[in-house]
Every structure is written in C-alpha cells, then in structure tokens.
Design brief:
Blueprint: H1 4-22, H2 31-50, E1 58-64, E2 67-74, H3 77-88, E3 95-98, E4 101-102
Parallel strand pairs: 2-3, 2-4
Antiparallel strand pairs: 1-2
C-alpha cells in the first residue's frame, strides 16, 4: 500500500486535466456553451425566416459566448434594425454584433 498516495495523486491529476478540457477560453467554447450557442443560433435563424420583414434577406447568423453575430445583406435600415429587435427577443442572448450591410442599387 506504499503506492496509494502516488495513485491518488495520479487520479487527481487526471481528473483535473479532464475538467480543464471542459472549460472555455475567450476563443474556445465548452461543450455546454457550444450547445447553448447552437440553440441560440437556431432560434434566431427560425425567427428571421418566419418574420415577414426579414424572410427575404440574406442574413448569416453565428453565436459565440452568447453574442449573436449578424452578417449579410438587407434591403433597408429598417430591416437591419428589425433584425436587432428579433435577436434581442431570444432568451440567452448576451449581445448583438450587427454587421448587416444595406444593399445598394447601381
């Protein structure tokens, strides 16, 4: 039984290493955060498609750490602002980065 403290220390190190793998960093999500962000993205996309104002817009949606990023094109500033309103109504959204561009006609 002289190896018991050594085995216990090894087990503690393995547990600590595995838990560290589940944590997040500013650039990387944990499994739970990935799931939450994916759910937010899906909800935003569904609402944008179902909405009569934004249904015809070309909007790409991604979410990282609860912040929703909107990119793509809309037809007017009203559509851009309406997209913000839709996103802010989704539970779990911590912020919005709206980089939508208004289409110009040449």
């Amino acid at each position: 039984m002289r190896n018991t403290p050594l085995i216990a220390a090894a087990i503690c190190l393995m547990i600590a290493a595995s838990l560290a793998g589940c944590s997040s960093t500013p650039q990387q999500e944990s499994t739970g955060e990935f799931f939450d962000n994916s759910l937010i993205t899906a909800r935003v996309k569904a609402k944008l498609i179902d909405d009569r104002i934004t249904t015809d817009c070309s909007i790409k949606v991604s979410t990282l750490n609860g912040v929703v990023y909107l990119t793509g094109y809309v037809n007017s500033n009203q559509e851009k602002q309406h997209a913000d309103t839709i996103v802010s109504s989704i539970t779990g959204v911590k912020g919005i980065e709206n980089s939508l561009q208004i289409k110009t006609t040449n």
